[in-house]
Amino acid sequence: MRRRRVWICRLRIGWGGGSLGRSSTRGDSCSRGRLWQAVRVLDIVHESLVKDVSVTKRDIFYRDVPLFKAQSTVDKLVDDFAATFGTSRGNLNVRATSKGLVCGTGITIITSDGRRITLGDTEGVLIPAMEDIADIQIDDEVGWVLVVEKDAVFQTLARLGITRHAAFARRGVVITGKGYPDIATRQLVKALSDNLPKTIPILGLMDGDPFGLDILSVYKFGSKSLRHFNEELVARRIKWLGVGRGDCAMANVDLGEMIPMKTRDYQKAQSMLQRRMPDKWRQELMSMVFTRRKTEIEVLLNIQEENPFSSFVGWLAGMVNAAMDRVASEGPMDVS
């Protein structure tokens, strides 16, 4: 079976993105605390470079929990150092703890030490850090990539074996970042987006709520916390597949069956509406704000009818097959 090679791009970061040089307006005690935190992170990074042993952000945090107090402190310092030094986090021998999963026998990952990670169709494999990946190979039979927001939905889809389900015209690959994605997951989606033929759609299956669209935005446009090298992580080709109001209407889910939005949902929607985004996303967010209702993937996932193509798998297969047909007949998809 012939396989397609996906080359891995390495991160390169320009100068001037960090915030380590900024003066603090807080009290001296707070400033001293931040200084000691920064010095401690530099000490651990220096040790890892001298010994040529990689550490994770989690490892650094547990080296001195009383000093750092929160994992986010370490995360921000490491990212700021990388941006200030004009290098990647991997070049500092620091890597994020991977949490994302991928499944589908159509993809094989070759590690830097020569191991071949062959994936299955019914369970996920932890996505390795990109520093550990030498090559990614994709079978020519693969026709679509689906990025799923939630781990629970990913596990359900894996158990159903949708990556080679008969309802789909071609085999596929399913990925999840388990909510907001880690760097390894974003790098994998980025590599696929940049290197797979444009005839293979990359689709996002997210909750129909402000946070679902925000997670999709991280994949497609980047995140504020990693703005120093967003261009090295964004997957411009990813397209929102669902779930939206129209999907619920097709499944005969009325407004009363949708979930009331909480204050944090409403605030998130209002904040997102201040950004530039595809018109389809904006219309969906405005509808959420107006109706004060949101929906989740599980609303469609729980549909069980006698006609198998009226079930969730039938709906998903129809949407994915239609996306493949569009790119085959019209060229690259509208990237909204």
From TrEMBL:
InterPro entries: Meiotic_Spo11, Spo11/TopoVI_A, Spo11/TopoVI_A_N, Spo11/TopoVI_A_sf, TOPRIM_Topo6A/Spo11, WH-like_DNA-bd_sf. Keywords: DNA-binding, Isomerase, Magnesium, Metal-binding, Nucleus, Topoisomerase. It catalyses: ATP-dependent breakage, passage and rejoining of double-stranded DNA. Its main location: nucleus. GO terms for cellular component: nuclear chromosome. It holds the Pfam family TOP6A-Spo11_Toprim. One of its GO terms (molecular function) is DNA binding. Its EC number is 5.6.2.2. Residues 144-306 form the Topoisomerase 6 subunit A/Spo11 TOPRIM domain. The active site is at Y62. Its cofactor is Mg(2+). Residues 35-94 form the Spo11/DNA topoisomerase VI subunit A N-terminal domain. Belongs to the TOP6A family. This is DNA topoisomerase (ATP-hydrolyzing). It comes from Pterulicium gracile. The lineage of its organism: Eukaryota, Fungi, Dikarya, Basidiomycota, Agaricomycotina.
